[in-house]
Each structure stands twice: as structure tokens, then as C-alpha cells.
Amino acid sequence: MYAVRIFDGIEDKVGTLIHSPFTDDVRLSEGKVTLRIHGISNMSFTINLKNPGWNKIKPLKTLIKVTDLKRNKVIFNGRVLQPTEKMTKDGMVHIAYAAESILAYLHDSRQRWGEYHNISVRDFLQVIIDNHNRQVEPHKQFKVGNVTVTDPNDSLYRYLGYEDTYDTIKDKLIDRLGGFLIVREEPDGNYLDYLESFGELSDTPIRLRKNLKDMEREIDPTGIITRVIPLGERIESGDPDNTEASQPRLTIASVNNGVDYLDDEELIKEFGIIEGTIIFDDITQPNILKTRGEQFLANQKTARISYSLSAVDLNLIDDSMDPYEVGNWHPIENPIFGIEDTLQIIEKEIDINDPAQSSLTIGEKYVTLTEYQLEANKKATKVVELEGIVNRQARIIVGLREELQEELQNVDKALDDLYKAIDDMDIDALNEAIDILEQAIQDLQQAIEQIPSYGPVTHEKDGLMLATDKQKLDKITVTNVVDLDALVQEIEDLKARVEELENASAE
Fold it and tell me: What pLDDT, on a 0 to 100 scale, did the predictor assign at position 16?
């Protein structure tokens, strides 16, 4: 359950409630929050004329908070962006808004040119944040918090241009060194943590046939470089006033037979020639530059694998289960995809009006060429295994069908013998026929009990059995329909008639 409140600027400490799960009078027409650990979290929502927020929202000034009432935790804190006015064909008027988290404040400032030698990651981030803080209002400022990301030498060589602050951090730090940029809200202000790793390990699984509803896997090899051009320090032009970013750089041509690139033959065989550059600002010797380029190719990951899925958050109904938090790691089990791994939630989309319909993005996992090929082989093998299971199940079901039909034929024959004995008034034969019929019914019941028990499943959606199995099972038909309860009652009636005949004979 979530509550949504807007604020008329930073001075408004009370705000206006625009969504509550406890009343229909204060409710968003639509509302979705997308939380992510890579990039800026965002929100979209729609209000109508009856909503308390109507005519109170001002783009870029109005602030917005979403609170998880179950855990009493603010999950989204940001500002409202542009509105989109809508009118439906029945005359209903709505306004849709987009919002972004406070991390987007880093887009509100521009850096200034500078050249920095032998500087640590933390100190370089501090320079960037200091530039940002000098240009924006107090509530948009950040303090540098925990920094656990380092470069191999902990001695950066970087230039700053005039890009906005967020893009600068992404280009100069995250894209080159990795890590996670996390906003931490404290009583004394907003802190910016730059962490090598983020999130906690949970033992609450996301498992097919338990809480996994649907899943999509994306294997993206488009970031692969099969031919790399290593570039070292900038070559000075001799003009002290020349600060252009397009200055030439050191290459490996002098130590690589006149060629300025390195090839990965195995990757080229798999993907073709895909050229890219890698820059090492601190390298001044061509031979060292070549070695670093070779190391890059050797350690390069071939493909990015991510998973988009819908899963039931069992914490909504069971407090013993961990909620699905962005950044946390969960066991993922899906035998159809050949997945049995522990992966990180990198994005979560929350439906404010229907939290059970929330979706997750799992990953990202980067794999080498060998792992990439193994993934494909494993998936193909899993398909073969599943086909084998389906075939075995089909054979079992066919055998059970044949056995059931045989038992039904025995019941039919026993009934025929019973009716014949009644017609002939043969008491001894009648008793024998009843015994045979009872035995046939018992055999039929045992045959029925051997049929596997499956949970709910459709032709399109797997349940406790595969949808393909369901399709095959539905093709199995029994021509003779037997009502066992009616059959037992018929036997009891026959026994009564036999007793009457025996009594009549005795008289």
C-alpha cells in the first residue's frame, strides 16, 4: 500500500495528499514508480478533477514523495515535470505528469573546464560535486558520502568540460570504472554515495511455479568490441592555449607493425569486426599501452544478459518473506530458460493502484564468449530435456488410458453377467456376478488413482504441469463414462433384490 503526497516547493512541510489506499476520494487515476540502480528513478501519474492535487502542481517546483505504508518508508522523492492534459471521448478530463528523483538535480548544473592529474576517485568526485553545489539552490546540493570505487592505480588523469554534472559523472567515472551512484537522505542533507557494490543477499527465491508469473530474457552482444584501438595520453600541440578535446593521442602503431589496433580473432569469428576505442589518460609509453589493450581484450565480456519478469511479491501476504528491493540479490530459478542463479534486481516498476502487478528487471550479467556460447548450448540442451519429459509423460498417460479402458471393459462385462443372472433368476450366479463387479470397480478405482495429479494449467500458460502436456492430456478421451456412485447404488439395489428373491424362495 502506498501514499502519494505533493509539496508546493521546499518550504512546504505538510503537503497535499493526492493518493491514499484507504479512500476512493483521494486516489490517482493511474500511478507507476520506476526505481532503478542505474540511472535516475522516475514516476508517472494521472489525476482527475476530483483529486485534491488538481491545479496545485507546478512543473519543476512541485515536489512529490511516495511512501510505502507497510514499511513506513519513502521509496520515491523527486520533483514533478511537464504535464500532459487529456480529455476522453466521454468528456472526462485528466492530467498526466512525469516526475524524476532528486538525483536529477545533477542535471541542473554545468561543469567548468579543468585538467586533473594524480587524483583519487573520491577527490575527483568531490571536485565535480563542489562545482555543482556552487551553482544550485541549497536543497539541490549534495555531500560526498561513501566512496568505495577505485581505479587500478587510484590515480586518475581526467579532463572536465562543460557538460552537465550528471553526464560528467557518468562519462568520467561510472562508464569507465563501474559502480553505483546512490542518493542517501539524512537529517543534515542529501549524500551521494559512489559504491563498488550495492544491495543485500536475500534467500527469498523468484521461482517458476511458485511466484514467477512471466519472464523475458534479453541477450545483448551489441556492446562487444572485437577490434580495439588503445589510446594513451594526449599529444601536446605546443600551443599552451589549445584545450580542444580533439587533440591527438598516443597509439600503439610504433610497437605493433604500424597498426594502431588489436584484434580478438575468436570474437571476430563469432561476431565479425566491431571496432572501438579504449582511452588510458595516464599511459605515456606505447609498449605499456599495447599491454593494457591486450588485457582489455582478454578480460572483455561478450554480452549483457538481463531479465524482465513479473513476480508475486510474497511479502505482501507473508512478512517472513523479504520484499523485492532494488539492488538486492535473489535466487532465480526457471528450468525452461536453464536459469538457476543468484541475480540482482536492477529495476522495479510499482503500480500504485495494484502493487501485486509490479514487475522487475533482473541482471545485468555480463558473460565472456565462452559463457555466451555455453548459455546458448545450455538452453538448447534444456529444450531437449523438456521434450524428453513431455514424451515420457505422454507415454505414461497413454499407458494409463489403455489400462483404464481395459478396466472399463471388465466393468461392462461384469454388468452384463449381472443382468443375465437376474433375468435367469440364478441366485448363485447372481452372487458371483456381484462379487466380480465389486472387484472390477476396485480395479477401476486403483487405475484412476494412478493418474498423475496436476494443478491448474491452460493450453497457453504453465501450471504444475507444462502447457504442452495439458494440450496432450486433453486429447485423451474415454468413450465409456462411468458414475461410480451410481454403480455402487445399483449394486446395493441388486443385493436387496437378491435377498428378496432368497426370502421368496424360502417361503
Answer: 95
The segments of the chain whose pLDDT lies below 70 read: 208-209, 219-222, 236-246, 301-305, 316-317, 336-338, 364-405, 407, 411-412, 414-434, 437, 444-488, 491, 501-502, 504-507
Which pLDDT belongs to residue 496?
Answer: 73
Burial 253-278 (b: 16+ CB within 10 A, else e): eeebeeeebbebeebeeebeebeeeb
CA-CA distance, 391 to 50, in Å (whole number)? 59
Neighbours of 481 (CB within 10 A): 6
Q: What is the enclosing helix (H) or strand (E) of 88?
A: none
Does this model's pTM top 0.85? no
458: how many CB neighbours lie within 10 A of its CB? 10
Look at residue 371 in the predicted model and tell me its pLDDT.
Answer: 47
Instruction: Render 112-174 in DSSP notation, one character per residue.
Output: --EEEEEE-HHHHHHHHHHHHHTTS-GGG--EEEEE----TTS-EEEEE-SSBHHHHHIIIII
Q: How far apart are CA 66 and CA 64, in angstroms?
A: 7
Looking from the CA of 368 toward its CB, the CA atoms found within 13 Å total 9
Neighbouring C-beta atoms of residue 92, cutoff 10 Å = 11
The cell numbers describing 194, all together, are 559512489
For residue 79, CA distances in Å to 60, 138, 348 come to 6, 15, 19
User: Measured between alpha carbons, how far is 232 from 168 in angstroms, rounded to an integer?
Assistant: 20
CA distance 438 to 449: 17
For residue 440, count CB atoms less than 10 angstroms from its CB and return exposed for 0-12, middle for 13-18, buried for 19 or more. Answer: buried
N-to-C CA span, the chain: 81
Structure letter (DSSP) for residue 315: G
Nearest to 307, CA basis, from 204, 216, 220:
216
